[in-house]
From TrEMBL:
GO molecular function: ATP binding; metal ion binding; rRNA (cytosine-2'-O-)-methyltransferase activity
First and last residue of the signal peptide: none
HAMAP family, per the entry: 16SrRNA_methyltr_I
Gene: rsmI
Protein name per Swiss-Prot or TrEMBL: Ribosomal RNA small subunit methyltransferase I
Length: 249
């Protein structure tokens, strides 16, 4: 029977590929890749042939799905990879996975790097509950309105951001959540210029502005959740309640 393997690839450091990922990439009949040039470089590094690749990106995924699912149903083994990290996480593949599952094809993960989890693992923010918000809207007004909707969120917030918008993004985070809220910027994880900066959002904005190198590369931005109902408020509410209870006949 056919199998669709969803294979995680490195975020930057090529040694982060798992042995099982190499094995699967060596053995499958077809590799569906977000960008065949990027994945071609990875395959070349691993000494594997790049001849079995087919492109599957945002713009052609819908059109490619029926043929791929047909091949899978007829017994083909296919690996899905994206440019970096785990496919489907702010990357193409959702339509293919959904269609393969609907057709009864086995879909099997070959887990590995994802910038989201890598950043959470070093940020020092609570990870028992978190919300992944992916990329915020590119335009300022839409971005601030999205952030306004998240202002009361008590779980740790995680965003992806590009170098073009990192400064504007952190300024808006400070404007909407308040400059005193704690945040973490994880930049170029697993790469040569990896940096993880933390502080209040105002300080992080200043850190970005202090050095043009700080706004280069790829970013995960994490923000502490809004403080849940504070103790004094609860105490006050309890007091009102006890007064009311006492007044009841
Ligand atoms: N599928 C990927 C994953 O599992 O993390 C994410 C793909 S998304 C198109 C690319 C974004 O992920 C970047 O803009 C950045 O926000 C984040 N990212 C990817 N690699 C990173 C790295 N090495 N350091 C920090 N952020 C990274």
């Amino acid at each position: 029977a056919g199998v669709l393997y969803v294979v995680a690839t490195p975020l930057g450091n090529l040694s982060d590929i798992s042995s099982r990922a190499v094995e699967v990439l060596r053995e499958v009949e077809l590799i569906a890749a977000e960008d065949t040039r990027v994945s071609g470089r990875l395959l070349a590094h691993l000494g594997l042939s790049a001849g079995r690749m087919l492109s599957l990106h945002e713009h052609n995924e819908q059109a490619r799905v029926p043929d791929l699912v047909l091949r899978l149903s007829r017994g083909a083994t296919v690996a899905l990879v994206s440019d970096a990290g785990t496919p489907l996480i702010s990357d193409p593949g959702f339509r293919l996975v959904a269609a393969a599952r609907a057709a009864g094809v086995r879909v099997s993960p070959v887990p590995g790097p994802s910038a989201l989890i890598a950043a959470l693992s070093v940020a020092g923010l609570p990870t028992d509950r978190f919300v992944f918000e992916g990329f915020l809207p590119a335009r300022g007004a839409a971005r601030r309105s999205r952030l306004n909707a998240l202002a009361e969120e008590t779980r740790t917030l995680v965003f992806y951001e590009s170098s073009h918008r990192i400064a504007a993004c952190v300024n808006d985070l400070a404007a909407v959540f308040g400059g005193a809220r704690h945040g973490v910027i994880a930049r170029e994880l697993t790469k040569h210029f990896e940096q993880v900066a933390d502080g209040c959002l105002d300080a992080l904005g200043a850190w970005l502005a202090a050095d043009t190198d700080h706004v280069r590369g790829e970013f995960v931005v994490l923000v502490a959740g809004a403080a849940s109902v504070s103790t004094p408020d609860t105490a006050a509410a309890d007091k009102v309640l006890s007064v009311l209870v006492d007044a009841l006949p």
